[in-house]
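User: quick one - fold this with copper (II) ion bound?
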Amino acid sequence: MPVGLDTTVRKQMKLKSLALIAALACGAAYAQNVEIREAWIRTSVPGQNATGAFMKITAKDGVKLVGASSPAAGVAEVHEMKMEGDVMKMRAVSGGLDIAAGKTVELRPGGYHVMLMDLKAALQKDSTISLTLVFKDAKGAESKVELKVPVSTTAPGAVAAKAGDMPAMDHSQHKP
Ligand SMILES: [Cu+2]
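Assistant: Sure. Structure tokens for the protein plus copper (II) ion:
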């Protein structure tokens, strides 16, 4: 009886470690399932406490964006903007932002964004900021995506589409 018990325990332990390896392998493949394009972080001026990170997120399997972090910010949160009466209000997305399978969700000014708060320094144009996004799959397993995000005054798509308008826009946004 004691021998049989011992074998059972050992079997369970083996199973557990196999499950862990499977989870890790899954996490790696899963991170590749999440595609992030056109990420950018808006510049900030000295003394400014917060700014936003924007991007397009696509996932082959449905996921939720549940969190973020960056060495440039004390706090990073997934936010949404919503009209409440005549007032545009911003708040943390509770329970995570749904990224439906195969659909692209755009984080953009005036909509969903990753809010970087408690900024440690002004974010200069053309610098690069590390940003980590945390996703959760349907089973609740978390995975992280590490990004190097350019700091800019406008979205990368807007630069390409409105090249002619850029100098004026750049200038106005550079005023401290
Ligand atoms: Cu916000």
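One thing worth noting: Residues 117 and 163 are 30 Å apart (CA to CA).
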